[in-house]
Amino acid sequence: MQGKILVAGAGGQLGRELQRSVPAGCQCIALSRAELDIGDAAQVRVVFAEHAPDAVINAAAYTAVDRAEEEEAQALRINGDGPGHLAAACAASGARFVHVSTDFVFDGSASTPYPPDAPANPLGAYGRSKLAGELRVREALPAAVILRTGWVYSALGANFVRTMLRLMGEREALNVVADQVGTPTWARGLADACWAALARPQLSGTYHWSDAGVCSWYDFAVAIAEEAQGLGLLARLPAVRPIPSEDYPTPARRPAFSVLDKSASWRDLELPPVHWREQLRHMLREIEES
Ligand SMILES: NC(=O)c1ccc[n+]([C@@H]2O[C@H](COP(=O)([O-])OP(=O)(O)OC[C@H]3O[C@@H](n4cnc5c(N)ncnc54)[C@H](OP(=O)(O)O)[C@@H]3O)[C@@H](O)[C@H]2O)c1
């Protein structure tokens, strides 16, 4: 693969991992929110005129799921309009576009993994804003690749794993929701999937990406505790107790089941499935080594 690749949202979990895995032959122009506000159509046009990218990966998003309930207009500007501006600029210049979306476009009422063409029905403002972004991208650039993911974490960034490590270091016991299931996604693997999508010029449409396997937030927390203790990141194993979602009320409703069917991605991106617990171990090792 060759060319100039613009990464929007360079300061986020995915944005940073993308910069660590730029394929040989590619020049990566990584722009943080301060350098490119994707919600500002004029800024997007200026950046395209300045850099003339061959392709764009959109890692920029409003990701505060609970706050979005009170700031839906702001979430829509960033997650709905922003990807639309990028897709329109790509369509006008002939650049390819990989956009990242979310499992929260689904309502979680399924009991088998969601295929990419399953009907969307978001439960909250964040999911609605991300779905609006998908529709804007499809409209402006049907050849775009939309990669939906969920439960993203990395060694750098605000995420469930880092929050658990902090709380587990401070407390003897923790209660964690056990009736929401999905699959964690290490941002490094998601970055690889984005690059793999770009490397396949014929690829277009909606794909799903997370690590392999299924767990609840409770299972994930237990695994974090065990793996972190094994690596010496925790001095002792905290007690982790399963609780129902109703005992941990949040402003935004979350899907009870958000397992994505990744079979098309594993086939078309030629990336093998890796179990979420193995990826978790890699990430914790990275923290341990740093
Ligand atoms: N995190 C998850 O669990 C999760 C789950 C499902 C899907 N996703 C999707 O995966 C993608 C990557 O998420 P992530 O975990 O890497 O998110 P993240 O760590 O929150 O990063 C998002 C980045 O976008 C930036 N940003 C916000 N508004 C922007 C704007 N108007 N213009 C340009 N940049 C802007 C943020 O900057 P500031 O920090 O300065 O605001 C931040 O650096 C997103 O599309 C997200 O919706 C994430």
From TrEMBL:
- The catalytic activity of this protein is classed by the Enzyme Commission as 1.1.1.133
Q: Which GO terms describe its molecular function?
A: dTDP-4-dehydrorhamnose reductase activity
Pfam families, A to Z: RmlD_sub_bind
Recorded hits in Gene3D superfamilies, A to Z, give:
NAD(P)-binding Rossmann-like Domain, UDP-galactose 4-epimerase, domain 1
Q: List cellular component terms (GO).
A: cytosol
Note on how the cofactor is bound: Binds 1 Mg(2+) ion per monomer.
What NCBIfam families does the database record attribute to this sequence? rmlD
Question: What this chain does, per the record?
Answer: Catalyzes the reduction of dTDP-6-deoxy-L-lyxo-4-hexulose to yield dTDP-L-rhamnose.
Listed name of the protein: dTDP-4-dehydrorhamnose reductase
Q: What is the protein's species of origin?
A: Mangrovimicrobium sediminis
